[in-house]
Specification:
This protein is mainly alpha-helical. About 75% of the residues lie in helices and about 0% in strands.
Length: about 270
């Protein structure tokens, strides 16, 4: 697979998802859960198509590198995902400050708080499990694995990360999510498995949900207006602590990856 072909696959899946959600929106059938259902359907079909075209003789597990690795990678990936969350939020706020949007974003925080208990449970499952699984299977699974056959690791990490960030469409969000995407690619390369980046991604999203309960609720400046996205007030100590956790987890994963490579070479 070439870099251009990987980008075309990513763009095609993103366009298909946008068209499906837009079509349902015109029919009045879109709620907070519907886009996730659409993503599961589109990415599932996309994985099947990728497998048929680029790995017809391989099993799905082999194709996406769903292989077991040292258990320590799983715990470190979880800590890294949780630790990166507040830094990513701060970066997004900085991007919005330097490049203000023309229209206010939809505030997920208020939408989540306004949802009923059952719908909140579905949203948690979608954000923590379904969305990370869909995105990681495609970007760090199928596309990463095919590109890694012919490209240097740094190229694969950078290209799949860029495609992943651009798949989020909104340019400010794409800029803010790019460092996270590169980190996911590095973890995939360092461990040789899909599971650690998937766990990292899920814990990253789970931290966002947890903060909705731990941090003060955002307050709209006007009763009829939603506050800006990412308006949660988080203490500075939390941000510093999460950065230290992410730094320690990254170092631990780097050490463990080197140790595992050394063992495999002997």
């Amino acid at each position: 697979m070439t870099l251009l072909l990987a980008a075309l696959w990513a763009a095609g899946l993103t366009l298909a998802l946008m068209l499906l959600v837009a079509g349902l929106g015109r029919a009045g059938a879109v709620d907070p859960v519907t886009p996730v259902v659409c993503q599961v359907a589109v990415y599932g079909l996309g994985l099947f198509a990728l497998l048929r075209v680029h790995g017809p003789e391989a099993s799905i597990r082999e194709f996406v590198a769903a292989r077991a690795v040292h258990p320590g990678f799983y715990g470190l990936a979880a800590l890294l995902g949780a630790g990166l969350n507040l830094s990513a939020d701060r970066l997004y706020e900085l991007v919005r400050l330097l490049w203000p949007p023309a229209e206010p974003d939809v505030c997920f925080e208020l939408l989540f708080r306004a949802a009923g208990t059952t719908q909140q449970g579905v949203l948690v499952a979608a954000v923590v499990l379904a969305v990370p699984a869909c995105e990681e299977v495609i970007f760090r699974g199928a596309l990463f694995g095919r590109l890694a056959l012919t490209r240097r690791p740094i190229e694969v990490i950078a290209w799949t990360g860029l495609c992943f960030a651009l798949a989020h469409i909104e340019p400010r969000q794409a800029l803010a999510i790019l460092p996270m995407a590169l980190c996911l690619g590095w973890v995939r390369h360092a461990t040789g498995s899909l599971w650690p980046p998937l766990i990292l991604h899920g814990c990253f999203n789970a931290t966002s949900i947890a903060l909705l309960y731990l941090a003060p609720a955002p307050v709209a400046p006007d009763a009829a207006e939603l506050p800006p996205c990412g308006a949660l007030e988080v203490p500075l100590a939390w941000e510093l602590g999460s950065a230290l956790v992410a730094f320690a987890a990254f170092g631990g994963m780097l050490w463990l990856a080197r140790r595992e490579r050394g063992r495999a070479a002997t």
